[in-house]
Amino acid sequence: MSRRNRNEQPEWKHRRGAVPGTFSIAAVDPETGKTGVAVSTALVAVGGLCPFVSENAAVATQSFVKVSHGKHAIDLSERGVSISTACEALIEDDEHAGYRQLHTIDSNGEDFTFSGDDCVGWYGETTGENHTVAGNMLENGTVIQAVSDRFEDAGGSFSARLLEALEAGQEAGGDKRGKISAALLVHAPEPKLYHNLRVDNSDDPVGELREAYELGRETEEQLPEQAEDMLGDYPEEILNFGLKY
Question: How large a percentage of the chain has pLDDT more than 70?
Fold first, then answer.
């Protein structure tokens, strides 16, 4: 495991929604072919900014976010460019890279982490088996390690492990400004309703993300019976909704 910590920044005065700050985990599950990102922040609607997934990779762009970094990293990966080469090129071409964080892992286990020197402390990143974690403007340096440790120790499904890791980060202190939004995004061979969840504006975004996750699982389990009640005989394919990424 590697870790890089930098925290030589002045304290940020708390102001709700002032600037982008976050902690997130990007991960892959080689056994199931799933990739995913879980993220929480004190900025509204982080699910529309930070997480990107595909069959090949999971990417998180954060700090002073540049959404195109996530999109382009995924696009380049799908065209056969290694994820580290793709991200290095994106950072090199970004004149404001010092304010960015970008971290990713692909289905082959290749990872990339970057935190610019102008990110606001506490900030840093860590890598572990099949995952990367990064955060900025956190309460302390234990947050990202708590996320990583929980992901490695947790049992259950890939999605459940991502969510548990996010909960561990919040329990360890999370974003020093507070908490507003959270998201879970998973790419899977068989997508489920709970693979793309967002809480955009809440006093307890990680808690509400957990509620949405449990409701999504319950809904998936009940759909066949509900469809049978409504339709009688029906083609099972109509319940394969797919998922928007």
Answer: 90
Residue 178 has a pLDDT of 66
Q: What is the pLDDT of residues 151-167, one digit of tens each?
A: 999 999 999 999 999 99
Element (H, E) at 67: helix 67-78
Say how far apart CA 243 and CA 196 lie, in whole Å: 8
Mean pLDDT, the chain, as a whole number?
91
Give the integer Cα–Cα distance in Å for 96 and 118. 9
Read off the pLDDT band of 140 (50, 70, 90).
Answer: confident
**Rounded-to-integer distance, Cα 72 and Cα 235, Å:** 38
Q: What is the mean pLDDT of residues 204-221?
A: 97
Q: 102 with 112: CB under 8 angstroms?
A: yes
Q: How far apart (Å, rounded) are the C-alpha atoms in residues 46 and 40?
A: 7
CA dihedral (199, 200, 201, 204) positive or negative: positive
User: Residues 184, 38: contact at Cβ < 8 Å?
Assistant: yes
Residue of 86, 85, 112 whose CA lies nearest to 101: 112
Judged on CB neighbours under 10 Å (0-12, 13-18, 19+), 238 is exposed
Peptide bond into 12 cis (omega under 30): no
Nearest CA to 74 out of 129, 133, 26, 22 is that of: 26
Q: Nearest to residue 160, comparing CAs of 127, 194, 204?
A: 194
Tokens of 36: 């995913």
Residue 104 phi/psi, 5-degree rounding, is -160, 160
